[in-house]
Amino acid sequence: MQLRIVVLTGAGISAESGLGTFRDAGGLWARYAIEDVATPEAFARDPALVHDFYNMRRAEAARARPNPAHAALARLAASAHEVTLVTQNVDGLHEAAGSPALHMHGRLSGALCAACGHRWAAPEAMSPETPCPACGARAARPDVVWFGEMPHGLEEIEEALAGADLFAAIGTSGEVYPAAGFVEAARPGAHTVELNLAPSLRARAFRERRIGKASVVVPTWVDELLA
């Protein structure tokens, strides 16, 4: 039977590829203040600091490689099931594994002109002096969604959730909205499952929980769906 499946992934799925999570001990927000590097106000106040932060993250993402969890989701996406893969991650590991993904928080590989809205492939490093190739303004910023900005693709995501037979959240903290509320937005009667290293803050909202490393629990879950 073909299923309509919506999968949400967070930082936990990329952790085993060497990319840091955010809220865990030693995570990015333990080392950097959100208000210093991840808001429009921070960029207006100190664009050099914000660029340095995202240049570091872009370099880390470029070195990372997909792990078995990414590969398993690529197998699921290539199956007969109707799969909508949504990610909060700004790395490109889903695409590197062969899965198209809706990046609700943007991508490190993109640049955005804060003056004219033009988008282009980000260079390895950007600075306050990086010009927009369309209008020439020195207003280049990472094409990522900062705190206080609207995530991408919400209408498409809401439509997919409303028709879902199965909703899975993988490697998410359950702290960031609107993604934390997707489990309630899934179609009434849909099966919901959380796959995580530890129960998230929203764990009790799911019908099923699978606890363990993403590289282990995700391939096992996908194997069961495809059996």
Automatic annotation (TrEMBL):
<dbReference type="GO" id="GO:0036054">
    <property type="term" value="F:protein-malonyllysine demalonylase activity"/>
</dbReference>
<feature type="binding site">
    <location>
        <position position="135"/>
    </location>
    <ligand>
        <name>Zn(2+)</name>
    </ligand>
</feature>
<dbReference type="GO" id="GO:0070403">
    <property type="term" value="F:NAD+ binding"/>
</dbReference>
<dbReference type="InterPro" id="IPR003000">
    <property type="entry name" value="Sirtuin"/>
</dbReference>
<dbReference type="InterPro" id="IPR027546">
    <property type="entry name" value="Sirtuin_class_III"/>
</dbReference>
<feature type="binding site">
    <location>
        <begin position="10"/>
        <end position="29"/>
    </location>
    <ligand>
        <name>NAD(+)</name>
    </ligand>
</feature>
<keyword id="KW-0963">Cytoplasm</keyword>
<comment type="function">
    <text>NAD-dependent lysine deacetylase and desuccinylase that specifically removes acetyl and succinyl groups on target proteins. Modulates the activities of several proteins which are inactive in their acylated form.</text>
</comment>
<keyword id="KW-0862">Zinc</keyword>
<feature type="binding site">
    <location>
        <position position="116"/>
    </location>
    <ligand>
        <name>Zn(2+)</name>
    </ligand>
</feature>
<keyword id="KW-0808">Transferase</keyword>
<feature type="binding site">
    <location>
        <begin position="171"/>
        <end position="173"/>
    </location>
    <ligand>
        <name>NAD(+)</name>
    </ligand>
</feature>
<feature type="binding site">
    <location>
        <position position="214"/>
    </location>
    <ligand>
        <name>NAD(+)</name>
    </ligand>
</feature>
<dbReference type="InterPro" id="IPR026591">
    <property type="entry name" value="Sirtuin_cat_small_dom_sf"/>
</dbReference>
<protein>
    <recommendedName>
        <fullName>NAD-dependent protein deacylase</fullName>
        <ecNumber>2.3.1.286</ecNumber>
    </recommendedName>
</protein>
<comment type="similarity">
    <text>Belongs to the sirtuin family. Class III subfamily.</text>
</comment>
<feature type="binding site">
    <location>
        <position position="54"/>
    </location>
    <ligand>
        <name>substrate</name>
    </ligand>
</feature>
<feature type="binding site">
    <location>
        <position position="132"/>
    </location>
    <ligand>
        <name>Zn(2+)</name>
    </ligand>
</feature>
<feature type="active site" description="Proton acceptor">
    <location>
        <position position="105"/>
    </location>
</feature>
<keyword id="KW-0378">Hydrolase</keyword>
<dbReference type="InterPro" id="IPR029035">
    <property type="entry name" value="DHS-like_NAD/FAD-binding_dom"/>
</dbReference>
<feature type="binding site">
    <location>
        <position position="113"/>
    </location>
    <ligand>
        <name>Zn(2+)</name>
    </ligand>
</feature>
<dbReference type="InterPro" id="IPR050134">
    <property type="entry name" value="NAD-dep_sirtuin_deacylases"/>
</dbReference>
<dbReference type="GO" id="GO:0005737">
    <property type="term" value="C:cytoplasm"/>
</dbReference>
<feature type="binding site">
    <location>
        <position position="57"/>
    </location>
    <ligand>
        <name>substrate</name>
    </ligand>
</feature>
<dbReference type="Pfam" id="PF02146">
    <property type="entry name" value="SIR2"/>
</dbReference>
<dbReference type="GO" id="GO:0017136">
    <property type="term" value="F:histone deacetylase activity, NAD-dependent"/>
</dbReference>
<keyword id="KW-0520">NAD</keyword>
<dbReference type="GO" id="GO:0008270">
    <property type="term" value="F:zinc ion binding"/>
</dbReference>
<feature type="binding site">
    <location>
        <begin position="88"/>
        <end position="91"/>
    </location>
    <ligand>
        <name>NAD(+)</name>
    </ligand>
</feature>
<feature type="domain" description="Deacetylase sirtuin-type">
    <location>
        <begin position="1"/>
        <end position="227"/>
    </location>
</feature>
<dbReference type="GO" id="GO:0036055">
    <property type="term" value="F:protein-succinyllysine desuccinylase activity"/>
</dbReference>
<keyword id="KW-0479">Metal-binding</keyword>
<dbReference type="InterPro" id="IPR026590">
    <property type="entry name" value="Ssirtuin_cat_dom"/>
</dbReference>
